Every structure is written in C-alpha cells, then in structure tokens.
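Note to self: keep these together.
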Amino acid sequence: MSGLGSSLDFSRDIEKGVADRVSLNDIDYILSSASKKTPPKRVLLLQGPVGSLFRRLQNRLNDQGIEAWRVILNKADDFFGGRDRLLHFKGGHAAWSQWLEAELEAKQFDCIILFGCERPAHTIARRVARKSGITVISLEEGYIRPGYISVEENGNNASSPLAGKVPTGTFSVVQNEEQAVFKKKPLGSYLNAALYYTLNELFNSRRERELNHRQTPIISECAKWLRNVYINLSARQRDLRAIEKLTQNHNKNYYLVALQVAADSNLKEAALGWCSKRLVRESIASFAQDAPDGSQLVFKVHPMERGHNKLNPLIMKTAQKHGVADRVSIIEVGPLGLLAEHAAGLITINSTSGLSAIYHGTPLLIIGRAIYEHPKLAVCSHGKPDFSTFWHKTNVASHDFRMNYLGWLTKHALKSGDLYNRAGQDVAIDGILAKLTGATTTCAGTVEKERAN
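Structure:
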C-alpha cells in the first residue's frame, strides 16, 4: 500500500548554485514544491485530542468523499467518537500491533491520522505504518500558539521531519489573523477532559488501560486540578509582582528554567534520561558554583502542572543546600514569554518554550532532543549539558536568521486553527484537509541539517 507523497523531499542532489557552497561531505536537504497530491481513499483515525475534533474531522472527510474510519480503544473514546465506521479494539498492548496491521491490510487504508505521536498506541502505530508504507499525519498542540496546531507527516517535536534542521532559503513570518478568534480554551474543553478521564478510570478494563497515555486515578486527579485552580487564583498577584521585579530590576541578569509537565511525552526517549528533578538538582548546583555574582535563577512551572507539581520543596531545599536560596525563585503563574524576553538565558530539557527564547534572541540551552535542536539556534547538549559554560554565554543567532527559521517552521509544520474551540476546529480541519490533498503550495528552499560532531 502506498501512502501520500511527502511535501518535504530530502535529497542528496544539490541544485546548481547551492552545490558550489558545500563540500562533498555535506548533507543538504531540499524542500521541493509540493505538487498536487492524490487524496487518500481511506483514512484511519486513531486517538485525537479530548473533545469533538476527531468526530467532526471524520464527518468532514466522509463528506469530501474520503472514507474515514475511527479506532475505539476504550470507553472514553467510544463516548466521544461518532456512531458510524468504528473499529473497536478489545485487546491490550501486546495484541495492538498485530490487530492494527491486519485492519490496515484488510481495509486498504492509505493514511493514518493521530494526535500525540509518542502515545503508547501511536508509537506502535507509526512503526506499523512505516512497515506498510502508509502515511501518518501527526497532530499536536501548535509549536507557536495560540492560533496554530502542528500538522506534520510521521511525527512532531523531536520526531518531526524538520527536527534538527534550519532553512537556507528565505521565509517570512506571517501574522496569523485567526488568532483572536480562538485565543482562549473554552470551559467545555476542561469539562470534556474531566469526563474523558473519569470514564477511563471507572469503566475501562485492565487491558484497555495498558494503552492509556496517562494513568489518572480519578480522586487524586480531581484534587490536583482543584489545587491548580487554587494556586492560579491565590498566587497570581504575588507572581506577577515577582515577574515585574525580575524584568525591571534584573533584566538580562537571571536565568530561566522552563519546567515541563511530568506526563509530557517529550520527557520519554527524547529527554535522553533527564527529568525535572534531575534538572533542578544539577542546574542549582552549577548555578551556585559558576554563575555570575548577583545573578538569579528562576524556575517557571508549567500552567498544566501547577496542581501536580511537587518540585517546589526540592527547589528550595537544594538552593539552601548550596547557599543560594536568596537567588533562586519559583514562578507558578504568569507569562513565560515575558520572562524569556528579559532572561540572560533559558534552560529546558526539550520544551517548545525554547521557541520563545529563539524568538526573543535569548541564549538557549537544550538538554534533550527537540525540533529546534540545531547549533545555530541553541546550545545542544545531547544529554550532557555544560551548565558552567552556559552561564556566561551571550551570543545568539541574528534576528533575521531567527525570524526566517520561525517563518519556515510555521509554513511547513503549522496550520491555523485550534484543537478545542469550535471556530478554531473549523479552521484546523481545513488545514488538515489541505495537508492530505496538497491543496497549498510550499516554497522551494534548501534546509541545512545539524552536522554530527
């Protein structure tokens, strides 16, 4: 079975003019113009974001004459799924690969659409699809948001076909006029999430839970989200005052550590063995020993992690141990972008918050693997960060280079839309259909891959 042709044609053949600038040992990748694709005949939808997006996408695909089926992995998927063209999988982790391969062959699917390429069921599905020559369209929260979703072939983030590459062609950053339409996540999306995980916890069998991407005991999960709401309300004014003080009194004299959600799929293989606890311990130890005198170290808690976060005591205990408690702070509420703009540097395992540092021209240290892992954009540690050197790093790529990269990333990895807001879903579905059919044309340009050291 053949899948859709990729809109990114990576080739060792260098166009005339470009070849004159590279050596024979260089590997250059060429972005070809996306020719009109033949739309898939049958599409299989796996798990989507919580809510109605995949149900509406399935209906739209069928209306467009593309036969769309959806896999149901558990009771919550069944509740939020449609009523037609459903495939119910009743097994566990061990049986999933064989079952999926048989269904793909039996119904001659030529495309899979999924959300979250590193979910347990989806990592297996991508491997099966690759073996069968079937295209995978992988969706994720937008690298740049609000106003965008990520729509890429094969995977996102560290698994993106763009990971570790930068353009050498010219791309402009286009202001997304749709952003204002669906800026805020509607209340219904939170209620849908609560219902989804409640159904999973109460009604799923043990085998169905094996493919869950999050294990969420319902009582403790509810308590954590209530705690999140409480912190958001009670700490808001305190943290906003702290941010104002940092940006005004310590401009370019504090280092920002962007913490991630513990359940973030990026903190699996792509984290290269790192977790937030290790990041806290090692960054503070190095900061105390080697950072410039008078500088500050700021830990920014992810908004989705406030209620789940157990790192605050560890942060302060470690800071006290190394004698820098008066120079270390924690921000739980407030805009990361503003903090990144005024920081002397940003450290992350592999969060997409690194793109904020790139946008603002702030030195960036990435520990794991990420889409922006390239030495022209960041200090790439490959799992072995040199914090001591980073505290004194000041050079970054030029403004034009950084804006060109973000324009290129937007053009080739993002589509306007939103995963939860209904108006945004309409726009997102248009973008997904365009990706499937090649309705939009990409500009040709070369990209440069990170050279292995």
